[in-house]
Amino acid sequence: MIDIVNFINGRHVKATSRDRLFSINPSTEERIAQFNVSSSTDVDSAVYAARIAYEQGPWPRLTVEERASYLHMIADALEDNLPLFAQYECEDTGFLSKMCLHGHLPRAVEHFRFFAEEGKRFFGSAIPIGHSYINFTHHVPVGVVAIMTPWNGPLSVSSINLAAALIAGNTVILKPSELAPITVSFLGQIVAEIGLPEGVVNIVHGAGQPTGEALIRHTDIDLLCFVGGTQVGKDVLRYSSGTLRRSLLELGGKSPTVVLADADIDAALDGALVSAFSSNGQVCTAGSRIIVDKTIAKTFSCQFIERTQNIRVGDPFDETSEIGPMISASHRENILKAITQAQQEGASLCAGGIVPMDCYRGFYIEPAVLTGVHPQSSLATQEIFGPVVAIFIAENEEHALSLANDSQFGLAGTVWSESDSKALSFARKMRVGNIGINTPYIRDIRCPFGGFKQSGIGTVGGYWSLEQYTQTQTLCLPLNSYALPRYGALK
User: Fold this and answer.
1) What is the pLDDT of residues 254-274, one digit of tens each?
2) Is 345 one of the annotated active-site residues of the chain?
3) What's the CATH superfamily of 256-437?
């Protein structure tokens, strides 16, 4: 079993609390890591270390090229240990091994390399004012940044924010989810080995209570980034209001997959299945609401249900598995309860939604498809965060658009049509931030990613991430001698 400790001010230190948590392998139900829960005292120590490092240390005063060299060293260390880290992340999250090895972990390496170079391209601007003055801008760090990340893709999600915050010159307190802390905990060892200045990166472990709450409530944090559920995001905003602290929030989703009457059904089926069930359905962009035109609804629905029934649920290390386990026993139970409640409200369960008969260990569930779901029911409006899909029938395109936009969330979506121009026109009317047209939405580090409505505040990716983790300072310089009014000079 792995013993995990905090990393504060360049040192590995055990949390002061005696309360202990365990990381459970979702596919075997075995304990694979243990750690003491960080108290408010531990959080105070981490924030203090980050503050001293920012105010007195070298990190914000290094050139961007010097900071970039450290990010490349972190990327090198991750890349050298990629198979091992992928194994740990698969064991920690239950995500498919092939996805961890070829997707999530290489993406973390890419994030550090990308921002190492993007930081060098992040320039200010010059604005002439007549012939007498010029104003010019440059970007300065926000200061002390707290980053709280989820358990689905823990290292990848942490790295996109950590790398951007670091290249901008900030110091950081990073708190990973208590459900999947292993790979993020190894970052402490990496930054120590490469000689990153003390206090620049600090890592604390613990649950939402008390560790997360202590971070959210802390008054000496200049920016708090939270990736996770919408309710906690609202708590972040509430506690930030007292100091007007900046907040960057990537929150929940209930993403629509819209299949118009002229769509290529085979292509739409492939895309809808990927959107709904990749990452075990435990991803904020999951296409959990499928809206299909009535003229093709029967054909599409029957084929979607049949394909879902054939999905291979099993060991994430098995190359033939298509869906692994849910993150925890309690999370699986919540998913099963949501399906039962939907049935009680009149929905029909057409596929899955049960524990597989041949899975004696692990938190597995067969992917579920429901029809007859009321658009205002909990299954249609709340994020289930699992392999559960509701199919809705649209009378026409106007009705499809109304169903797609009838959500408190607005993170992602897809549109399928033989006509690219029709799909593009439809997509531009959707109130979501990230849309795939005749394809599942493909995220790229160079592109902006952010949600509408209650799916978040702020945008990450490329230039936009650096805007989040910096402040713009404007400086005014005279070009020519200019006679200012001489207040008080007359006698």
Assistant:
1) 999 999 999 999 999 999 999
2) no
3) Aldehyde Dehydrogenase; Chain A, domain 2 (3.40.309.10)
